[in-house]
């Protein structure tokens, strides 16, 4: 067991407390990672504000990169010193969903994540929860070997962390979730970290039009740099009418990357007949959708969801890393600011200002 520094959420709606915690030794299949960088994802904010319930105290943070420090006795593919990013949907590899290639829907996830002892404890021995069994706002974390991907040397860790959540989620939703076809038209509602990755995925997929929709003009300006061909400020009126005015008809694919019933319903309304709406944003617990039934049979629309890129995260992250190396996936541009660990709470405040795509926290600074 070691003692390290972590940012702990003790009560919903309060700032994270930077404090010492204890981290258990790695179990046979686990790796202890010295965390260098963590991107601030809106999902962390959901736990902090209570829109997604969690046990307390908890260490949030999951968009993670760092360096392997110690490995459990059964670990074969990683060694101390390896630079890594997270593949945050570990899986058993053997259940019916894993065998079918849907590892994000592993039916044995609880078993896979089960530990003999709590991974994190307070210095006086009380257990601390970890968001998604990760808890990245800690200078040391424990992850299963199959929840990590080695990063090539020319990918800096402060951009490599994005691969583990917003990139695999957004680009994966395009390729694996909705399976966007070349030449088709795409709309993206919400142009934060995840939405910007969806826009880039649509560009890489060869979409002939990519319409970015947000409430903030700075985010829309950035969206153009990531590949949007059209932009709509959703606060200026009806985005459905405006999209039809700009394109002449609805889109083949509409992605929702905000997390609300209203924007999910808008995604369906943006489609032309036979189009697919893909929900990626995480709506508050208990949210229900009201959608017109006629859309599904007379217009053959489809409504789907995509979680963490709907696929084989380790393989996909390695591929997306190569797209970055080839200059085809923009990661540096997405990191608006790197802030020191002590400013993590201010980082969450900055997230809601328009001129940021991703804030990354440097845990060693
Ligand atoms: N499905 C998954 O696996 C997965 C993974 C990561 C994040 N998420 C979820 O995706 C969502 C987006 O995450 P993020 O980190 O990109 O958030 P973010 O805060 O960086 O971006 C959200 C964007 O939505 C915009 N927005 C807010 N209300 C809007 C509206 N009514 N119309 C248009 N735009 C609006 C904001 O201006 C902002 O640009 C969150 O709900 C998050 O929890 C899902
Ligand atoms: Zn995330
Ligand atoms: Zn499985």
TrEMBL record:
The biological processes this protein is annotated with in GO are: formaldehyde catabolic process
Q: Which UniProt keywords apply?
A: Metal-binding, NAD, Oxidoreductase, Zinc
* The keyword Oxidoreductase is assigned to this record: yes
Domain of life according to the entry: Bacteria
**InterPro entries in the record, alphabetically?**
ADH-like_C, ADH-like_N, ADH_Zn_CS, ER, GroES-like_sf, NAD(P)-bd_dom_sf
Q: Which residues form a coiled coil?
A: none
Output the Gene Ontology terms for molecular function.
S-(hydroxymethyl)glutathione dehydrogenase [NAD(P)+] activity; zinc ion binding
PROSITE patterns for the chain? ADH_ZINC
Listed GO CC annotations: cytosol
SMART domains given for it? PKS_ER (SM00829)
Its cofactor is: Zn(2+)
The Enoyl reductase (ER) domain covers: 13-361
The family annotation for this protein states:
Belongs to the zinc-containing alcohol dehydrogenase family.
**What is the protein's given name?**
Zn-dependent alcohol dehydrogenase
């Amino acid at each position: 067991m070691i003692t390290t520094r972590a940012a702990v959420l003790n009560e919903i709606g309060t700032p994270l407390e930077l404090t010492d915690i204890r981290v258990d030794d790695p179990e046979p299949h686990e790796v202890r990672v010295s965390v260098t960088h963590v991107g601030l994802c809106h999902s962390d904010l959901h736990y902090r504000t209570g829109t997604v319930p969690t046990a307390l105290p908890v260490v949030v943070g999951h968009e993670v990169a760092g360096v392997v420090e110690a490995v459990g006795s059964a670990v074969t593919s990683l060694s101390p010193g390896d630079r890594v990013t997270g593949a945050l949907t570990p899986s058993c590899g053997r259940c019916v969903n894993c065998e079918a290639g849907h590892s994000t829907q592993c039916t044995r996830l609880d078993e896979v994540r089960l530990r003999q002892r709590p991974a994190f404890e307070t210095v006086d021995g009380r257990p601390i929860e970890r968001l998604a069994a990760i808890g990245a706002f800690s200078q040391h974390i424990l992850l299963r070997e199959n929840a990590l991907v080695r990063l090539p040397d020319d990918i800096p860790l402060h951009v490599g962390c994005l691969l583990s959540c917003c990139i695999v989620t957004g680009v994966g939703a395009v390729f694996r979730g909705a399976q966007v076809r070349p030449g088709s038209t795409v709309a993206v509602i919400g142009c934060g970290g995840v939405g910007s990755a969806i826009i880039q995925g649509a560009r890489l997929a060869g979409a002939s039009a990519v319409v970015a929709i947000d409430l903030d003009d700075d985010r829309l300006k950035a969206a153009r740099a990531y590949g949007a061909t059209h932009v709509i400020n959703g606060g200026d009126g009806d985005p459905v009418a405006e999209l039809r005015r700009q394109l002449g008809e609805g889109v083949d694919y509409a992605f929702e990357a905000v997390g609300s019933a209203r924007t999910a319903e808008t995604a369906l309304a943006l489609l032309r007949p036979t189009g697919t709406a893909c929900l990626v944003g995480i709506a508050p617990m208990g949210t229900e959708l009201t959608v017109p039934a006629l859309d599904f049979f007379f217009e053959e629309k489809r409504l789907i969801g995509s979680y963490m890129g709907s696929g084989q995260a380790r393989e996909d992250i390695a591929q997306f890393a190569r797209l970055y190396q080839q200059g085809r996936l923009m990661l540096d541009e997405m990191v608006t600011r790197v802030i020191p660990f002590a400013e993590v709470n201010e980082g969450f405040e900055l997230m809601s200002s328009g001129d940021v795509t991703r804030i990354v926290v440097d845990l060693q600074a």
